[in-house]
Amino acid sequence: MTADPRAAADRRTFIPLDPSLAPPGTRAFRDAGGIPADRWHADQNGETLVPTHCCFCGVQCGMYLRVDHGGKVFGVEPRNHDINRMRLCPKGINAYQQVNHPDRLTAPLMRRSRDEEFREVSWEEALDFTVSEVKRIQQTYGNDAFGLLGGASLFSEKTYLVGKFARVALKSRHVDYNGRLCMVSAAGANKLAFGIDRAGNPFSDILLTDCLLIAGSNVGECFPVMTQYVWGARDRGATLIVVDPRETAIARTADIHVALKPGTDSAFFTSVLNVVIEEGLTDENFLADHATGWEELKAKAAEYPPSRAAAICGIPAEQIVQVARAFARAPKAMAWHARGIEHHSQGVENCLSVINLCTATGHIGKPGAGYGTITGQGNGQGGREHGQKSDLLPGGRSIMNEEHRRQICEIWGIEESELPPAGTSMMEMVWQMQRREIRGLIGICNNPFVSLPNYRVVKEGYDTTEFHAQFDFFLSETAANAHVVFPVTTWAEDEGVMANAEARVVKHNKAQDPPPGVRTDTWVICELARRLGAGDKFDFPDSRTVFDELRVASAGTVNDYYGITYERLEETGGIAWPCPTTDHPGTPRLFEDGKTYHPDGRIHLQVVEWHPPMDPYDDEHPMSLTTGRTVAHFLSGNQTRRLGALVEQTPRPWAEIHPSHGFRNGEPVRVVTRRGSEVFPALVTEAIRPDTVFVPYHWPVPTAANALTIDALDPRSKIPEYKVCACRIEHAERIDEVPAPPVAPGHVAYPETQVSRTDPLPPTAPQGRGTSERS
Q1: Where is the signal peptide (predicted)?
Q2: Among 92, 103, 281, 690, which one has the highest count of C-beta atoms within 10 angstroms of its own C-beta?
Q3: How many CA atoms lie within 13 A of 636 on its CB side?
């Protein structure tokens, strides 16, 4: 267990809040006694409450883990943190159950061939075999024949180590992470427009806005606790605009719901801009003072009148005019978006089209006015800031920039010639595995067999590798295909930081010791580095020492963490970067001085041209398949598909279709794309466009939505086009069965989480109108 946190509290310096920089509500939170968190005590003898944050989405709700007298996590309590104010979603209140779950891996698993069965081995044997395979492959085929894939649910300290390990210990250019599947389109757009990759405003600014536009985000299910901010804005009278092909729970409450055709977002937003220009609703003074590229953008917007965009998007032209007037005329307006507009081959353009609208109307950098992206994974923001993305070094530095390379080499103590160049993206690495260009791989905190598109290609790529090791605390579908599986800690068994969707850095605290036989990711990475001859560069006994180096490595960059310390995070409840000094309050709201992070300080408007999705429609595939999350599950489902209450709530995927197709709820419907077909129970609802099918993606084959999706990529962000591909639907005889999650040898599937999987009917709520019929 960690040292008594009250002792640390005695050493802290109380940092006064600057009301001009602190987000609204922070002072009230502190005055209410919510900080420091370690002054809270349990009301039962022998029980300890450990303050931490949820391990799931980018909201990063505060919670307490309940720890019994034996040092084991056994429950959860909501925490009055100013992010969530005592609220937790279904995933949050069940997250603690994974910590001491019977499916936990507690010994390394190993086999020398995929034809063999796994056997439990010692750490010494697993590490020795892994290092011998790394050396064999690299000595035979070169350093770049071995790759590393990280994850955006890791603490930032571990993401820092992933990038450093790949470049210093493996000496390979091939490193990327599953955040590539999340919000890199938004990151690319933010960098182009603003010179910085993060949301411009804190969540609390939503409470101050007069018009809130949410594009491509099922907030009610994917970020449930964020809904409180939407309701708070509505209580003040704010207009709510939702852009989504489905009438989601949040869209049902909107003043304007734009149910556009998947893959048409940039045409819609550029047409909204067209109306804003034509009706004289632009903020010309703001544009003149703070933007470049306006004349070129105006010329392009003229090509997208409402009549043209309406035909592209499949919506009434009047709705485009309605959105333009509501957003531009509002005294303060905000736009937030998520994967719905980012998971496209034109994802960067989609995000830029939203930025263009906000800039043209002057809604940037003010309380209640701005632009934000809602992070999918818990550390989706922090996970790409410090070096595990293929083209970035710590502090958001570019690996292609000579000065940035020199700075990091100096910190790491290596020669500049030793630092590899930029690598490729996650999906591109799979293609390279297919071509035998990458012959060995280590995966950490990811499950590509469920999360990557076009499963057949992914399986073939992984099967082609000569060696594959995976870190995880459950045996995921991807780990079950590996040669070595290292059992590592859950978030509750280590400490570290994450940056949420606001770019607020928060601290997770260790609540219990890991089970015997389990190691931290940090320990495993450092031990592998030592055995590969780079141990002197990885002398990190714990997360705190890694964070100290991360702070130094980020100092002076746009992503400056230098002024953030563990003690300050405990005291304040979170600090938004950039934070250059230990007396700096952080930067919850960007651009308040009208300046961006480009050298000229201006917003660089970008011309956007809409193009059709990469998977063409034809007579055989006339409909759009789109995918997404559901409230009970998270990403690949490796964690949530093992938790009984969540499996009972949503035991299986379904195909959401319009009543016009003649199906009844629960009837088998075959969804067919150019990659294959699968059969789901029909969820018949008027809450989806007649030309669109929705399937949630948390399950593996033969019920995997991502066996059907296309592996086309955005040319700039390299994000896959999950949100639209051509499909058709057919009547079928039998619904495909949901497989149980993999378990280690000698274990059986945890029965309490498996009962509901045989239910052939789709869930009734909260998906929308027309879903109550169960017969």
Answers
A1: none
A2: 92
A3: 28
